[in-house]
């Protein structure tokens, strides 16, 4: 996938160049522009159940495939301001992506969902992680800039749960309190995720949960009708 990312890391947009006969799969609503000979096809890509699982993971029930017979461009952008990065999948290791970060990918990449169980439930980040597998390129977006880290076997990294973007399926993870209950309630830190290598981990420098909390503080809404 030939992608040019501009205006990052604050307001990134990814422009995908489609060669003659080329295609790209895009999250519904992420298309910002098209140029040249480009047509769009909307579907669940995998049937009703796969679309349903993907929607439970925070993505749209539908996805859009953009095709070009003679060549064109598709520009994609995320909802919140931030960065984008292209990740190459080799077909051997799948990538687990947090809800809302998958933006576009080669049609050969399978975008499904993975049940996170209690670990994801307690993280407050949703019950489902998107599982991206196959051989090809994938475009991820974030709130804030994206920082990539490579973990050696046995090496650990701890992230606030709201700053997780994605990680290789080879990476083990567990969610826990940042400290004691007193620290969790009074210290401003909630739950964190411990990652153990080998594999890659991507984080975002801002947290959507913190943004929502800040909006609620500065613009409280009355509970009455």
Automatic annotation (TrEMBL):
SUPFAM superfamilies: TRAP-like
Superkingdom of origin organism: Bacteria
The protein, known as: Uncharacterized protein (TIGR00266 family)
UniProt organism field: Isoptericola jiangsuensis
Lineage summary: Bacteria, Bacillati, Actinomycetota, Actinomycetes, Micrococcales
């Amino acid at each position: 996938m030939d992608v040019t990312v501009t205006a990052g890391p604050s307001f990134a947009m990814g422009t995908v160049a489609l060669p003659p006969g080329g295609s790209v799969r895009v999250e519904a609503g992420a298309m910002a522009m098209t140029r040249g000979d480009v047509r769009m096809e909307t579907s669940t890509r995998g049937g009703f159940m796969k679309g349903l699982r993907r929607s439970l993971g925070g993505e749209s029930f539908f996805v859009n495939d953009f095709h070009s017979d003679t060549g064109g461009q598709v520009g994609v952008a995320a909802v919140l301001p931030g960065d984008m990065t292209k990740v190459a999948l080799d077909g051997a290791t799948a990538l687990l992506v947090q809800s809302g970060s998958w933006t576009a990918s080669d049609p050969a990449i399978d975008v499904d969902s993975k049940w996170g169980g209690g670990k994801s439930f307690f993280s407050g980040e949703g019950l489902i992680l998107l599982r991206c597998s196959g051989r090809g390129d994938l475009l991820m977006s974030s709130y804030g800039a994206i920082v990539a880290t490579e973990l050696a076997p046995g090496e650990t990294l701890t992230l606030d749960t709201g700053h997780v973007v994605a990680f290789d399926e080879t990476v083990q993870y567990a969610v826990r309190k940042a400290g004691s209950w007193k620290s969790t309630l009074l210290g401003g830190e909630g739950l964190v995720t411990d990652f153990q290598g080998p594999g890659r981990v991507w984080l975002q420098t801002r947290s959507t949960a913190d943004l929502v909390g800040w909006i609620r503080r500065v613009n409280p809404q009355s509970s009455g009708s």
